[in-house]
Amino acid sequence: xxxxxxxxxxxxxxxxxxxxxxxxxxxxxxxxxxxxxxxxxxxxxxxxxxxxxxxxxxxxxxxxxxxxxxxxxxxxxxxxxxxxxxxxxxxxxxxxxxxxxxxxxxxxxxxxxxxxxxxxxxxxxxxxxxxxxxxxxxxxxxxxxxxxxxxxxxxxxxxxxxxxxxxxxxxxxxxxxxxxxxxxxxxxxxxxxxxxxxxxxxxxxxxxxxxxxxxxxxxxxxxxxxxxxxxxxxxxxxxxxxxxxxxxxxxxxxxxxxxxxxxxxxxxxxxxxxxxxxxxxxxxxxxxxxxxxxxxxxxxxxxxxxxxxxxxxxxxxxxxxxxxxxxxxxxxxxxxxxxxxxxxxxxxxxxxxxxxxxxxxxxxxxxxxxxxxxxxxxxxxxxxxxxxxxxxxxxxxxxxxxxxxxxxxxxxxxxxxxxxxxxxxxxxxxxxxx
Length: 434
Description:
There is one protein chain. By secondary structure, this protein is an all-alpha fold. Among the domains are: 90 residues, no CATH class; 100 residues, no CATH class; 32 residues, no CATH class. The protein is built from 24 helices and no strands.
């Protein structure tokens, strides 16, 4: 039987290892998973509470899983070792020796977990403090990192950096040595892990805008920062994705995971920014809509914004949008990082009816049927009277006629009536458009 193998990115989960080793039955695992989900309790703790597993058995399974992930042993050998350890009721080290393999000297350190050893190696936490936090973690059924933060032995920022380093190590993107050195710099220079890795050339993230799955959920206000960090830590220990942990714990429904992954992919593809993705997810979650509904609304909104932009000068010239309102919209736009037109729409500085009138008048100007000054006058009349744009054209004061707009004389010799003349012709054209 092959003992060692190459590094495996996806070793079996704890429950799968225990079933494969004939330590627990498949039906027991399924029931324990239900209890774990409903009670938000780690699976291993559930199995211990119902008498299916001892604490030593659980520690052995966790250690084996870590060794499989590191490529020190194969899945097959790890399953065999768990079986011998549990059935013979001997320490895991003895089980390894019985199977003809001498584990490395650091094997005992796995009881502290990969996170604990990473924190100690990088100097972020003393071993004595770590051991106390491990005891508290077991007693209170809390993730180790959460206990360290609650004890003020570690900040949430440093914990998240350490967890991110763990993910990068697991995915084979950086080495343990690079992670340790970068975490030291994070603590010393008060910088981010990504920046520290970038500065040393250890890791160069994709240049375009991207967003982590957990960060998307926190920015959208769906989960708290603490819950996100705990989910990452549990996911690393149980070899689960953060979304799976959050769903199993009942924090979010599976539909939110699916839609968050879609938005994350859109950000990575450069279709939307991370901030836009978080805003879409926030609105969809709070309003009970799908992200497709929200994106359709945003698309329609963008069309409205573009329309306001096309008539912004006309709105100013007619006085429909006052100078004070324009300045206020400009200041708010800078603060919120949005366009002036979007502020005008959001704050309803100009009614939709007047915006539509401005668009209608702008069209007549483009077609040469009105002058810009006449259009502005008509728009001003719309605001003061509340009348429709085509109605105020009948009372629009005439300007000096030109060759193209000179009043025509009909067969009866009448000028300026509703059926003839400059205003009459204009009125008939507008009616045809309507």
